[in-house]
Amino acid sequence: MPRWNLSDTTESKIRSYSLMLAAAIMLYEYLNGDTSTQYPAMYMCIFVFPAVYFTNSIQEKYFPLIMEYVQAARLVSIFMTLSSFMIWCYTTYIRLSAPAISSHGLYLQ
Q1: 31 vs 50: CA distance, rounded Å
Q2: Which of 33, 37, 39, 98 has the fewest C-beta atoms lying within 10 Å of its C-beta?
Q3: Phi (first) and psi of residue 6, to 5 degrees
Q4: How far apart are CA 82 and CA 84, in angstroms?
C-alpha cells in the first residue's frame, strides 16, 4: 500500500482545508441546493472524515496490527471523496447553466 510521509503540519492543513470546503459546500447546499446536488455533497461529507483522519500517526497509534487495512480504507475514502466532489461540481454546473423554464412552458407540461 502506498504511504505518504507528510509532516503533521501538512496533514493538519490538508485536514482543515478539506473540512472547511466540505462545510462550505454543505452551507451552499442548505441555502440554495437541489436534490441533484445534495446527494453528491452528502457523500463527499461522509467520506471526507476517514480520508483526513486516518493519518499515518493515527494508524500507528490506534491500529498497529491492521495498518494495511486502514490504509486501504483511507485510499478508498480519498477516492470516494474526490469522485463525489467531481460529481457535485458537474451537477452544480449543469444545474446553474440550464436555462430557466418560462412560465408559459410550465403550463404546457
Answers
A1: 26
A2: 98
A3: -90, 150
A4: 5
Count of positions (residues) in the chain? 109
d(CA 86, CA 30): 19
Angle subtended by helix axes 67-97 and 35-53, to nearest 10: 150
Gap between the Cα atoms of 67 and 44, Å rounded? 24
φ and ψ at residue 33, rounded to 5 degrees = -95, 175
Q: Is 94 helix (H, G, I), strand (E, B) or coil?
A: helix
d(CA 37, CA 62): 35
Check: pTM over 0.70? Answer yes or no: yes
